[in-house]
Design a protein that fits this description.
alpha+beta; 9 strands; 137 residues; nine-stranded antiparallel beta sheet; 3 helices
């Protein structure tokens, strides 16, 4: 049995905050998973933390804090209608992020579609299907 992964890479036209991207995704049905899982990679250990969603404001402020701009940060998101979710990994200085879908193989394609629709007009999407391409949504 083989394992397959799929990532969708987003490149922003300018620096973005985690809060802005999470809010943009929320307009299309995405939400932060409960419990709220997040990570600040300030020690190269990718040490995930978890808390309740009533701490969302504090967590987003922490991820967007200037002292964390030089680190990878991440949150887990979920789309209830699609029944799938994934991890949003933001790269240092927040000009790019990678969405890694989780769930069944059948849901992987839909995750990418929902993520791309939610981000329409906000970011540049680069994706690979054997040929690297980038386009404005």
């Amino acid at each position: 049995m083989s394992s397959r992964t799929a990532d969708i890479d987003f490149t922003f036209a300018r620096e973005a905050t985690v809060r802005t991207i999470v809010e943009a995704l929320a307009t299309s049905g995405w939400s932060l998973e409960e419990p709220l899982s997040y990570m600040i990679n300030d020690n190269d250990l990718y040490d995930w933390q978890s808390t309740t969603n009533d701490h969302t404001g504090k967590v987003l402020a922490l991820l967007d804090a200037p002292e964390n701009a030089k680190y990878h940060v991440a949150v887990c998101v979920y789309h209830a209608q699609a029944g799938t979710g994934g991890q949003l990994l933001f790269f240092p200085h927040r000009t790019a992020c990678s969405f890694s879908p989780t769930g069944t193989a059948a849901g992987l394609g839909d995750s990418g579609v929902y993520a791309a629709r939610a981000a329409a007009g906000v970011m540049m999407v680069s994706y690979s299907t054997g040929v690297n391409r980038a386009r404005r949504l």
